[in-house]
Amino acid sequence: MNDTNAHAPAFDPMDPHGSTHAGGHHGHVIVHWRTQLIILFALLALTALTVFVAQAESLIIAEMGITIPHWVNILGAMIIAVVKATLVCMFFMQLKYDKPLNALVLFFCLFCVFLFLFFATLDLTSRGLIRPERAQYLVAGGTGEGLNGTVQDGTVSSNPGSPRIATGGLAITEFRFEQKRASYDSDRAMWSDYYHHQEETGAHPHRHEKDTTNYFALLGYDHPERSTEERSRPSHGLTPGLFAEHAPAHHAADHHDDAHADTDHAADDHAAETHTDDEHPADDHPEDDGH
Amino acid sequence: MTTIDAHHHPVPDQRPKKERLFWKNRGHAEHFRSHEEEFDACKFGMWLFLATEVLLFAGIFCAYAVFRTMYPDAWAAGSHYLNWKIGGLNTVVLLISSFTAAMAVRCAQLDQQRWLKINLVITLLCAAAFVFIKLNYEYIPKLLDGKAPGTFYSYPFAHDPHEPLWWGVYYIGTGIHALHVFIGAGLLAWVLYRATRYKAYGPTEYTMVENSALYWHLVDLVWIFLFPLLYLIH
Fold first, then answer.
1. Which residue segment(s) compose the domain that A275 sits in?
2. pLDDT at residue A154 above 50?
């Protein structure tokens, strides 16, 4: 028996780790600090890149009015995230130098994750799908409600820890809005507070869709730099009030793809202001036409 | 008396704890043939555990994907409430801490006791910074605004009726991640304590450092996906 205290520099079969730090010994590679530092800088650079890509996309949409398909944003961010995760796994977690068994565990686990996402996506994206040869056998089932069904009352009875709220059939967001509105003397005061708070915390205040009287412009928060006499900047997304006359005729599922084009509120609000002085765009919110 | 002999003669080791836990005095458990085998088994066990952790977060990512498909407007509005600068700063903090955790393993392997402790302290400071940034710039202001999940929701100026659901996914995702930050920091603090008090880790005894660092990298790994999903995708 060898004394583990005795540290011979040569390889010792009873003490395979020894003070001979693993140079040619399998399994225990000591990764050079310079390698790890390079990986750290690569990860930081990729973080900057993913932020830059997202910012550049927003800028292109807002400034040039070019609509970039939504999946570009998601795919770009996810590819960079996967590259970063691979670097962390291979070098920081040392899977590159490890026994392949450990990597196998991870791959199997990722395969399971893939199954989760794959079948969930398959289900969600095919719910509206009716194949012509099966159409005649179709029986209405379930609650008959689509994904955009009526928002139920906010009372939660099954969880005793939750606050009980009777929203009177309103969505909780609407309920809270009405509550807030009731607490003010005038709408003007409420929106004044809202835009003031927005200006304090965010960079550019954006006009809120529920501000139908356009207090945004009345209170002077509508900075006119976006579209001038010399240069008009095209806007994108859904113009509030656009679908007012031909209301909920089309299928709700059709909206998912075009609805999220209007996420850049800055560009939208500008488009909205010319239309909404005497209309009520809140009536035709794209999520609402299921009912 | 040597440690290995102690396994054959079940006489309790009478030396003070400080000596017994010194890394040069550590043997391996008797059901392993060698220290190497013990290390590999421990690490494999850790990876099995990490796989279950990945599956835990996979459930949350799946919920994110499902609800995003169902309510894209709420998700777009939700990510607009978050400031990418705060999320980006937290990403940088976690990446640096992951680097120092990897460095701590290297220092243990090379018996650089002082740098082992320095790296662990930096990692712990990063963990504290992460939690501070998260609480001070995200959780507290947002909860004061009423941007809370489910029926706790009281923010009046929502853009979409499904926003409480977004906050549910946001708080569960980042909250369980923050819980992992606390657990990981706890493990690394334990390693730091043992390294300081007993010089417990060195070239032949660094399983605990390695596995704690692996756990910490998982925290980093999850955040690498949470950051773009919550802050960058509009």
1. 210-288
2. no
Mind giving me the DSSP string for A177-217?
HHHHHHTSS-HHHHHHHHHHHHHHHSSS----TT-TT-HHH
Provide the β-strand partners of residue B202. B205
- What percent of chain B stands above pLDDT 90? 67
pLDDT at A256 over 70: no
Q: Check if A58 contacts B (Cβ < 8 Å).
A: yes
**A73 and chain B: CB distance < 8 Å anywhere?**
yes
Going by C-beta distance under 8 Å and a sequence separation of 6 or more, which residues neighbour residue B119? Answer: B100, B101, B103, B104, B107
Q: What is the mean pLDDT of chain A?
A: 70
Domain boundary, last residue among A77, A102, A123: A123
CB-hemisphere CA count at 13 Å for B153?
27
What whole-number distance in Å separates Cα of residue B16 and Cα of residue B201? 17
* Complex prediction ipTM: 0.90
Q: Looking at beta carbons, which residues of chain A come within 8 Å of B43?
A: 98, 102
pLDDT at A232: 55
Cβ-based contacts of A187 with chain B (< 8 Å): none
Domains in chain A, number: 2
- In a domain, residue A46? The reply is yes
Where does B35-232 sit in CATH, by number? 1.20.120.80
Q: Which domain-ending residue is among A88, A107, A123?
A: A123
pLDDT digits (tens, 9 = 90+) for B111-167: 999 999 999 999 999 999 999 999 999 999 999 988 998 878 889 888 888 899 999
Does B232 contact A77 at a Cβ distance shorter than 8 Å?
Answer: yes
By CA distance, what is B75's nearest residue in A? A260
Q: How many CB atoms lie within 10 A of CB B55?
A: 14
| 8 Å CB contact of A21 and B224 | no
In a domain, A185, yes or no: no
CB-nearest to B66 from A19, A120, A174 is A120
Q: What percent of chain A has pLDDT over 70?
A: 56
Binned at pLDDT 50, 70 and 90, residue A139 comes out as: low
Interchain CB distance below 8 Å, B99 and A37: yes
Within-domain flag for A48: yes
Which of chain A's residues have a Cβ under 8 Å away from the Cβ of B40? Answer: 27, 99
pLDDT in tens, A231-240: 555 544 455 5
Q: Residue ranges of the domains in chain B?
A: 35-232
Identify the closest residue of chain A to B149 by CA–CA distance: A162
Closest CA to B216 of B96, B113, B80: B96
Chain A stretch 79-108, residues whose beta carbon is closer than 8 A to a beta carbon of chain B: 80-81, 84-85, 88-89, 91-94, 98-99, 101-102, 105-106, 108
**Chain B residues in contact with A164 (beta carbon < 8 A):** 151
Q: Please give the structure tokens belonging to residue B106.
A: 């290297």
Residue in B48, B76, B111 nearest the CB of A105: B48
Q: How far apart are CA B53 and CA A278, in angstroms?
A: 54
* pLDDT for the residue numbered B96: 97
- Give residue-wise pLDDT tens across range B60-92: 999 999 999 888 889 988 988 899 999 999 999
Query: Quick check: is A145 in a domain?
Result: no
